[in-house]
Amino acid sequence: MAEAYIVEAVRSPGGKRKGQFAGIHPADLAGDVLNGLLDRTGIDPAIVEDVIMGCVTQAGEQAFAFGRSAVLASNLPESCPAVTIDRQCGSSQQAVQFAAQAVMSGTQDVVIAAGAENMTRVPMFSNYLLHEKEGVGTGPWSERIKKKYGVEAFSQFEGAEAIARKYGFDRETLDRYALDSHLKAAAATAAGAFKNEIVPIAVEGHLVDTDEGIRAGATLEAIASVKLLQEGGVISAANASQICDGASAALIVSERALKQYGLTPLARIVNLTVTAGDPVIMLEEPIPATRKALARAGMTIDDMDLYEVNEAFASIPLAWLAGIGADPAKLNVNGGAIALGHPLGASGTKLMSTLIHALKARGKRYGLQTMCEGGGIANVTILEAL
């Protein structure tokens, strides 16, 4: 079977809500990261055959074929097509999988997978709540769906609480995990671990190259002081992912393109998997998805040198560790979304850039990335660093 290779994977630094990227249109933020990808690979922009752009909240400034707007805001030629996809938090990880499938099928040779979300300028749920603002319709779930599952709405927050109860995680366990995320991210930043993956973004005449949400001085006491989101629950804003403005991108090519354009790959894609399960508990799906991906690849979790599991809520990677029997020392080694932010549609290629560069920095070979997603879906991608 034909192979798919990742030549480069980059991301913007993360911006806090109303923070360093609050004044940047999301198309421009995405365009800047696309330009950074082009610059680092040195390819002729004219050879890019498609851009697959993940974006969850396709409303306002992220509406009207947002991927195309990102291309028009970049140095790619206007002849380069684009498409915008929504697989919730896994949107840009799915973009990588679609790009890889195009390359592996021989349909295309050079494709960019990307994602962007400016959550300050296009708030989460602003498209989902349109029926309330306009007084039209009843929202995304029909009465048939509500009756089928016995719910009025599907809630990721409720799913995260349910997973914490199922696996017996108390508040302190989640808070300690959150603290560790901040400490790892702060240490990685201080060591320059993100230098090769971050594209600096120009903001008011100066370049921003540092993730804004990391709390280097975080303490367990400070995290524990944050109000719980539900009385009697264990989830707080401090042990959940941060709202974040950001963009990310990866260049996916065929073996033919490597030879034709003299490109050196960072990684080879070993396996692409997507599964779906219970839409109510929702966020537990990375566990069966990981099992399926490893089985299809003929590998075990012990073959993986590092893994990135999105920290949508602290209960998710903790449940994944327990369900898979994985080594905590290999998980999110440079911190995760609790410290670095979760820019929704950008998080897939964001985590992939971190995983690839972490593997390369450590001289390691195999990495696994998985993402819990709205509706009970999960993506898993296995990579081999080259």
Structure explained in plain terms:
This is Acetyl-CoA C-acetyltransferase. There is one protein chain. By secondary structure, the protein is of the alpha+beta class. Strands 1, 2, 3, 4, 5, 8, 9, 10, 11 and 12 form a 10-stranded mixed β-sheet that branches. Strands 6-7 form a two-stranded antiparallel sheet. Strand 11 and strand 12 form a beta hairpin. Helix 1 packs across helix 2. The chain starts with a strand and ends with a strand. The mean pLDDT is 96.
- For the residues shown, what is the average pLDDT? 96
- Which strand-content bin applies to the residues? 15-25%
Quantity of strands, as a count: 12
Question: Helical amount among residues, as a percent range?
Answer: 25-40%
Short summary:
Belongs to the thiolase-like superfamily. Thiolase family. This protein has helices at residues 26-41, 66-72, 91-105, 130-134, 143-149, 156-167, 171-190, 220-224, 255-261, 286-297, 315-324, 337-340, 347-362; strands at 4-11, 15-16, 50-54, 82-85, 110-118, 201-203, 206-208, 244-254, 267-276, 306-309, 366-373, 377-385. The protein is an alpha+beta fold.
